[in-house]
Amino acid sequence: MDYYGKRLATCSSDRTIKVFSVTGDQHAHLADLTGHDGPVWQVAWAHPKFGSLLASCSYDRRVIIWKEERENAWVQLQQFSEHESSVNSIAWAPYEYGAVLACASSDGSVSVLTHKPDGTWERVKIPGAHPVGCTAVSWAPANVPGAIAGTLGPNQGSNPRLASSGCDNTVKIWENVNGAWKLMTYPALSKHTDWVRDVAWAPNLGLPKSTIASGGQDGKVVIWTEQKAGEWVGAELNDFKVPVWRVSWSLTGNILAVSDANGNVTLWKEALDGQWAQVTTVQ
């Protein structure tokens, strides 16, 4: 869904991206975007302050930035070929940092693409982020935990942070310090016994701590919380007994959606005692 919840972008192994309008329970097909040469794994809308932009990543090793030049007429604004293998995941940074896109690839690296004021894109790579392959990437909120609104930006002491997951069974945290990406987790966060398929940093409006969810091929979902700067503790939310494909937070960060290989999507919420419980199954 886009920022306003009015449009939906979907992607498919048929190599296409489709855009729909959504009103209540009604939807209408608006556009087809073609240009990838392999399955398209993920699409992501940029914040509307940067215009109508959509990013996509594919098995064809490419990332494409699409721009809606006029209503329902999309063009390829930029194409990136930074990776040597499938690009599995993309995520736009909080808008406070500008138009910045992180990309995770099976070549083991994470690339960070930053739109500069002169219209060019700066390309920075974190090589060997997960040497066996990187599956997903997620940005930390720009505001500090407990803030009422996302007012902290990069010029106010908030360094951009990223979480990445990989085929080495770990989750890693990266921080941009003086323009360079540095690993902030020693050792890497390890509670999974198989590939970590997805990682998601929770929004933290009003929440007192940084929280990350990870889902694995081992069927487990782990909730990681930062006890103090750089120290993370993981607690198992549930063992689904089948691979977990995706984890996704609600906008307020208090409900986690989990999709698994049984075809289920379940919603989970943390109780006052810190225990997580399933609240519903999405039909």
UniProtKB/TrEMBL annotation:
Q: Where in the cell is it found?
A: Nucleus, Nuclear pore complex
- The superkingdom of the source organism is Eukaryota
Q: Which family does it belong to?
A: Belongs to the WD repeat SEC13 family.
Q: What is this protein called?
A: Vesicle coat complex COPII subunit SEC13
User: Record's GO cellular component, any one?
Assistant: nuclear pore outer ring
Gene3D superfamilies, per the entry: YVTN repeat-like/Quinoprotein amine dehydrogenase
InterPro entries (UniProt xref): Sec13/Seh1_fam, WD40/YVTN_repeat-like_dom_sf, WD40_repeat_dom_sf, WD40_rpt
Molecular function in Gene Ontology: structural molecule activity
What are the start and end residues of each WD repeat?
A: 33-67, 189-224
What's one GO BP annotation on this UniProt entry? protein import into nucleus
Purpose? Required for protein transport from the endoplasmic reticulum to the Golgi apparatus.
For this UniProt record, the keywords arranged alphabetically read as follows: mRNA transport, Nuclear pore complex, Nucleus, Protein transport, Repeat, Translocation, Transport, WD repeat
Checking Pfam families in the record gives: WD40 (PF00400)
Where is this protein primarily located?
A: nucleus
